[in-house]
Design brief:
The protein is an alpha/beta fold. It has one domain: Carbamate kinase (3-Layer(aba) Sandwich), CATH 3.40.1160.10. 35% of the residues lie in helices and 19% in strands. The chain is built from 8 helices and 11 strands. A 9-stranded mixed β-sheet has the order 4-3-5-2-1-6-10-11-9, sandwiched between helices. A two-stranded antiparallel sheet has the order 7-8. Strand 1, helix 1 and strand 2 form a beta-alpha-beta unit. Helix 1 crosses helix 3 and helix 5 runs parallel beside helix 7. The radius of gyration is 17 Å and the shape is globular.
């Protein structure tokens, strides 16, 4: 399949996705790889927004567990997402993809303020929009920010790119017999406490009927495949939509 089935998507990237083989920071090679993956879908005419985490630089929850005030830690994590967003913007623009970074925290010298209507206009003009600084509030993860922004811009689907090929009933890295799940409903994700997204993000997606697809970023071409409707990764829907309204 070579034609996209989605017109507008939000791609959620973890900060760790930008580390490559490093233990910390941003790997230039991975930036270039991610930029090419985004370009492959953008070239099909798909409108793409991105939310990237900051875990490769700083994690607020981890700092809080070591004694730092949680709100202070989360604000530092938001700044880490801005750094990742600016780095990804640079990589995209080096391959001629016009990109805008919008930050939930005001920093006008580096990024636009988040304005919903302006973001939608950028997307309509074919620009990639990167949403930085989460929701601008502590105690909310970038997963929750991704669901929120996806709803605000009326994305057709939220694509969560991960290090594994979808959702499993347990950690496939630790448990070699973990069972792969092709499709699942939101409520089951919550009940089984599957580590797809935090419960706030899943609940928000469920309440607003946002479909989610979790897939492997490490396989080249997967972003293009998923926007074209190929059967890869795990699809998360409402219970009544399972096996009925799959693309």
């Amino acid at each position: 399949m070579t034609d996209p089935i989605y017109q507008r998507v939000l791609l959620k990237l973890s900060g760790e996705a930008l580390m490559g083989d490093q233990h910390y920071g941003i790997c230039t090679r991975m930036l270039q790889y991610v930029a090419q993956e985004v370009k492959s879908a953008h070239d099909l005419g798909v409108q793409i927004a991105i939310v990237v985490g900051g875990g490769n630089i700083f994690r607020g929850m981890a700092a809080a567990s070591q004694g730092m005030d949680r709100a202070s830690g989360d604000y530092l994590g938001m700044l880490a997402t801005v750094m990742n967003s600016l780095a990804l913007q640079d990589a995209l623009e080096k391959i001629d993809i016009v990109t805008r970074v919008q930050s939930a925290i005001s920093m006008q010298q580096m990024a636009e303020p988040y304005i919903r209507r302006r973001a939608i206009r950028h997307l309509e003009k074919g620009r990639v929009v990167i949403f930085a600084a989460g929701t601008g509030n502590p105690y909310f993860t970038t997963d929750t920010a991704a669901v929120l922004r996806a709803e605000e811009i009326h994305a057709d689907v939220l694509l969560k790119a991960t290090k594994v090929d979808g959702v499993y009933d347990s950690d496939p890295v630790k448990n070699k017999s973990a069972r792969f799940i092709r499709e699942i409903c939101y409520m089951e994700v919550l009940e089984k406490r599957l580590s797809v997204m935090d419960s706030t993000a899943i609940s928000l997606a469920m309440d607003n009927h946002l479909r989610l697809i979790v897939f492997d970023l490490k396989t080249a071409g997967n972003v293009k495949r998923v926007v074209c409707g190929e059967d890869i990764g795990t699809r998360i829907f409402e219970l009544e939509n399972l096996k009925v309204k799959q693309p």
